[in-house]
Predict the structure of Phosphoserine aminotransferase.
Amino acid sequence: MSQVYNFSAGPAVLPKEVLQQAAEEMLDWHGSGMSVMEMSHRGKEFISIYEAAVRDLRELLAVPANYKILFMQGGGIGQNAIIPMNLVGLKTQPATVDFILTGSWSGKSFKEAKKYCNANLAATAEDSKFTAIPARDSWRLSKDAAYVHICTNETIDGIEFQDAPDVAADTGGAPIVADMSSHILSRAVDVSKYGVIFGGAQKNIGPAGVTVVIVREDLLGHALPICPSAFNWKLVAEADSMYNTPPTYGIYIAGLVFQWLKRNGGVAAMEQRNIEKANLLYGYLDSTEFYINRVDNSCRSRMNVPFYLRDESLNEAFLAGAKERRLLQLKGHKSVGGMRASIYNAMPIEGVTALIDYLKDFEKKHG
């Protein structure tokens, strides 16, 4: 089969080396005679897989010792409910949570949290049609918020925070909770600036079905009485993510991805590659009037690049031609239309250059 480049936003492309290793180990993991999918989550074989995954992720992100790493289920959307059920108990009820609305996913988090707390819309980029992060001095933060929620990379809208915002002085020290689903492990992150980092694995880590939660230990133990036991972070942490049967195969594939990242220079090396890929793609999009990217230069995502054809009557022809060139999953999210190229860690630079070649050829034919 000729080379395919998969630009899906998630479930997304995985490193070929990881898929090949998983295929080789499918029927017999390390001489155990079992597939990982057949293993007991409490058996020594799987425990060794789990412990390696936790250890490697802690190393890759330099996660401080006073943070727990949890592997859970329910995806990022599940955490939109799990997070307030675990954290609003930090404050006297009814607790307030501040939200910075920068796109579709922070919007979903805001809507879900309303069921469990006083959700305060502290800032929104809706006026800019989610093409920029609201200026920090415009944020209307609460003085006694339980936490401040941000989505550090909006997969649909293509907005990315370059660093954690400073909110402590305005909120009385409220922790920042960050949805990093679509750019975790793509760039260096100072974990100590956040109280909680979470993300579905299906974009930059592994298959759908496993969710990573990195939580500071002092934020454990505040769950509301209505919080299901399986979603109580304190119980999950005490059981080393084995309170209930975890998504074992997803954890295994995530662990292989962590090993792949370490072999390829870790997060620092990956960040440099991602900068190069993003600069190439944005550079071409900015050089022509045939295509449009509407996101402000200061907050363009390195992972998810939305763009539009100026003449949108050409959309179907564009997608058909891309498929012929084996450039897949370029259609934008149904809520915003247009196109979107997700260029995660596992997307090689050759995929980006192949896309740019196609963009040029399509423009020559239809421009």
Remarks:
- DSSP finds ten helices and 14 strands in the chain.
- The longest strand covers residues 118-124.
